[in-house]
Amino acid sequence: MDMTEEMMAGAQRLKQLGRCASALSGDDEIEKSTAKTAQKIEEDASFFLATTEQIQRMSADIAARRKLEESASDGSLTNEQADALIIQLDEAKGQLANAKDDALRTLVDEERRVRKILAEHDYIQRLLAGAGSATDKQFSVMAFPRGANTKTNVLQISGGAGTGKTLCLLAKLIQDTRPSRQMGLLTVDDAPRKGLFVCYNLALKNHVKSLLNRVSDAGCDIEVVSFDQFLNQLVRAHPDEEYAHLRGFASSSRYPDGTWRIKYGGDVLQAVADAMAQVAGMHPDQAGEYYLNVAEPENVEWVLDEIAWLEARYADPGEAHVHYPEASRVGRGASRRPSAAIRRIILQVWDRFRQILEDRHFYTIEQATKRLLDDPDLPKYDAIAIDEVQDLTVASIKLLVRMRASDSSRVYICGDENQKIYKRDFTWAELDEGVRGHTIRLEENHRNSPAIEAFAGRLLGVPASKDEASEGIYVGRWDEASVMGLVDNLLRSFPNESVALIGSDLRPWYGATKMQGVHATSPKANGAADPGFYMIGDRAGKGLEFDTVIIDLAGMREEEEQTLRNILYVNCTRARHRLYVRFTDEPPELLTRTYPDFLPLS
Questions:
Q1: Which residues lie below 8 Å from residue 194, measured CB to CB, with a gap of 6+?
Q2: Nearest residue to 370 via CA among 308, 443, 326
Q3: pTM of the shown model
Q4: Given the DSSP bridges, would you call strands 362-363 and 473-477 parallel, antiparallel or unpaired?
């Protein structure tokens, strides 16, 4: 980038920083002054570019005329005259360079002034308790909607792991719900504002709560919830004491009595298997096919995933029977592509599944969401933040958008498609016809070391040599005793740091930690902000971060390769400084293909 391009880019950056500083400080004069300076820089850059090109043309013309005069006899331009003109042009070039330097100094000084103002209003820095300042893109998030160039009520914050998306969400809620203390003609505008922060799992919920507790002067009312738990409290007959404030809402959507229970996992899988078996009796010639054969657990899981998609996608079974047989399967995986005839049988399984759940007084999160979508008496919030949005269904997001206190209430959503571990899909256009969105992408990774970022990047197809991706990273075949010895050594060597063991099957580790006398904490209890040793499931770590991460691939579940890549990417990017990847016997195929140069020789 030459100096003129640097000036033009700097002017654009200065205008953006000025908008941010003006929005965060409440002083419109900052934006006006920076815009005026930026305009002068742009005008100077355009003039410098034109003048430089003119000087270059004149220099070339003089050189050409001198060459002609060497063979000419009229002597219209002597060598002395040409030399004098070239000296004058060189002097002009020097003066132009000095003028450029002066303009750049003006740009640097003005940017330094604005960044000083920004530092005084750095909410992200407050959340980090002084551990660094916000990036330009993060400041743009904080200044939203200033500079969005359109009237918007939804901001999408996109970006990869470690770019600070969760912190930005929380900072925006603090900003939007903190009393403004703006003075009107007769009153002070300090009306209470209420915010809702929605996480996908309990571990992240408690982590966000711990971050919020660090900001003791926030002075705002923010409710932090996990999506499933929050909705369950809105539809069950008697909410828990922690959610007593929700008892007055959604009365028409609540289940009739306390015998109804939300169900996950084994209970729901059993209901699906029972439904498949009943429908298989209706189609004995197809009983051995994957969509009706309950002998293979992966078949039942696949049908459950399909049913979850049906529940979230269609308002009622009648609509599904019309549209599902020919519906697009974008985002639904490619390993099984059911025909229209097979989908009609799956619809029969869905019908039986819903009846079985009703008979047993069970309901799923998808069914709870559907009950609430048209409820006229939902709780209302002045600002809503939704984290890890890539793992929510379109119906879930629609429901949360409907909890805005007014059309001007803002919704902040963030996610990363590379961390998508559940087969949920939607497009932004489906949310609400009254929603207008703006996107800001965060790009700078502030969590992972460069080596860990490069190592995880291979899972996304980003090339990285072993030299680039090996510092602090270890891949090996270790037994439980070796892993526990490593944990003990890490806790002794780094007493102020956190260590996490992440795996799909944690049962063997409960006994191992007890035998070694190592105290293990679950982030579901109080987040993961404190030093110590944590054990978490391989799908429960989103939004969390630890100084050291040990990933146990033993007992890894059978999944489509892209899902496995996403799960491993999520877990690798939880680590700040050190990463250990453990397997037993033979390394998994994904590890062999992606990290052959990291595997031990024998």
A1: 177, 221, 222, 223, 380, 381, 382, 405
A2: 308
A3: 0.69
A4: unpaired
